[in-house]
Design a protein that fits this description.
- A hairpin with an 8-residue loop joins strand 6 and strand 7.
- The protein has a 7-stranded mixed β-sheet with strand order 1-2-3-4-5-7-6, covered by helices on one side.
- Helices cover about 30% and strands about 30% of the residues.
- It has a single domain, classed as Gcn5-related N-acetyltransferase (GNAT) (Aminopeptidase).
- It has 5 helices and 7 strands.
- The protein is an alpha+beta fold.
Length: about 180
């Protein structure tokens, strides 16, 4: 609970993946830049939905990503995804609070904590990493407040939606949960 608001996290269902697709496709180019996302790399919405459908049909252990929805009073407030999954070892997570009005109220921090527990259980990983754009202050602060440890800042292309950029690598170990 944050500020009297009950927050919950759970695996996203197929009928909810449009939340992710719309989040990116409806975002202003300036906002996508703060995320390190290249709008020209966004998949076509129909094709993207198909990719998510294919993923969700497979057992968690064989997926390339795991999607999590964040809710407050049953309404979506954000989402996370894990990729670069090595079952039993590590995964990389991403975090997004949907509405600007919901940011800076502790929602992201609490949802990241709950999401980390879900990823540790579902993926049986020992370590979670997150690499937000180094210049995007909000997720970097959120990860620090959620208990992640700073590892390094370096240049990379975090995933297929991103351009080459400086990122800050954060790590959270299963033993810290």
């Amino acid at each position: 609970m944050v500020g009297g608001v009950n927050l919950s996290v759970r695996e996203m269902q197929l009928d909810e993946v449009d939340l992710v697709i719309d989040y990116f496709h409806s975002a202003a180019p300036e906002f996508l830049e703060t995320l390190g996302v290249d709008p020209t790399r966004l998949p076509d919405p129909v094709a993207w939905r198909g990719l998510f459908a294919d993923e969700l049909e497979r057992p968690v252990e064989t997926r390339g990503r795991l999607l999590v929805i964040w809710e407050s009073q049953g309404d979506p407030v954000g989402f996370s995804s894990a990729d670069k999954i090595v079952i039993g070892a590590e995964a990389y997570m991403h975090l997004h609070v949907l509405e600007p009005d919901n940011r800076r109220h502790g929602i992201g921090t609490e949802c990241v904590r709950q999401t980390a527990r879900l990823y540790f259980d579902a993926l049986r990983v020992q370590r979670l990493f997150c690499e937000p754009n180094a210049f995007n202050i909000a997720p970097n602060r959120t990860l620090q407040r959620a208990g992640f440890t700073y590892v390094k800042t370096h240049m990379t292309v975090p995933n297929r939606l991103n351009f080459h950029q400086p990122v800050t690598r954060w790590m959270f170990e299963q033993s810290e949960v």
